[in-house]
Each structure stands twice: as structure tokens, then as C-alpha cells.
Specification:
mainly alpha
Length: about 160
């Protein structure tokens, strides 16, 4: 019994978010997703995957969209703190093509939608990510910034 995933016809393609054609974007994403295999033992990815009943690939790419948003929005100090709290931060952050611009939660949701992740799941990832970094000893400032940025509250 196979499961088919279909996106609405009006869904944005990742290429439309990066300003490149879909073939080169798909090629970049396929290459980056080969890195996901190494993330199957990543504590954050496992937590996201199990708490939302999604695949490791979805959890890793959803996290990548959230980290792209954080990277473009947080201060350098908060970005450095975040990177020190998330295992595999560089790998997770590199899963999206370099030219993908994620400067709002709406764009993060659009990126996630183009990867087959719905907005509720991405918001759940955001909440779990905040909870995870909080348990890792994140500063109140970082937690506050992430909560404001993602529009989430930690669990």
C-alpha cells in the first residue's frame, strides 16, 4: 500500500523562492538531502520526527527552514548560541540551497510546503526546537527571540 503526496496546484516551488529554475533547485536539494542520512541519529531530528510522526527527512528539512529564518533574523550572538546548542547545526542549515531566502515565518512555511511539510507540522517543529534548546541551557534572550520569531511557545 503506497502513500502518495500531492501538493496543491497553487503551492510555491522552491525555485520560486530561490530565484532559480526548478531543475537546478531540485538538483541542489537532492544533493543536500543526501546529507540527511547522517542526521538520522541527530537528537533534535529524532525528537522532531517522533513528536510529529514525520520522516527524518521531513524533520531535517523543516528544521533547515527554521534555522534559515533564525539565521536571517537573530543577532550574531544569538546565532552563535543557537549553533552551539543544536547538534549538526551546520549540516541542518545547509540542507536548503544557498540562495533560499527565508526572512519571515510565512516564507519558512512556503519553503516547508514546497518540501511536503504543512504549516501545522512546521509550527510543531518550531515549538519542539524551542523546547529542545531550552533544555540544552539556552539563554532567556534566545528563547524569547525564537518564540517571537516562530510565533510559538515552548512545551
Amino acid at each position: 500500500l503506497g502513500l502518495a503526496l500531492s501538493l496543491p496546484a497553487h503551492a510555491l516551488s522552491l525555485g520560486s523562492l530561490t530565484g532559480s529554475d526548478d531543475n537546478s533547485t531540485t538538483s541542489s536539494l537532492t544533493s543536500a538531502l543526501s546529507s540527511v542520512a547522517g542526521l538520522s541519529d541527530n537528537a533534535l531530528v529524532k525528537s522532531l520526527s517522533s513528536s510529529t510522526d514525520t520522516s527524518t527527512t521531513q524533520a531535517a528539512t523543516g528544521t533547515s527552514a527554521l534555522l534559515a529564518l533564525a539565521s536571517s533574523s537573530l543577532s550574531e550572538e544569538e546565532n552563535n548560541e543557537l549553533s552551539s546548542l543544536i547538534p549538526g547545526y551546520s549540516t541542518l542549515k545547509s540542507l536548503l540551497p544557498d540562495n533560499t531566502i527565508v526572512d519571515s515565518m510565512e516564507k519558512a512555511i512556503s519553503v516547508a510546503n514546497s518540501l511536503g511539510i504543512d504549516s501545522d507540522t512546521l509550527k510543531s517543529y518550531a515549538s519542539t526546537l524551542i523546547s529542545y534548546v531550552s533544555k540544552q541551557g539556552a539563554s532567556d534572550s534566545l528563547i524569547s527571540s525564537l518564540t517571537s520569531l516562530f510565533g510559538s511557545s515552548s512545551k
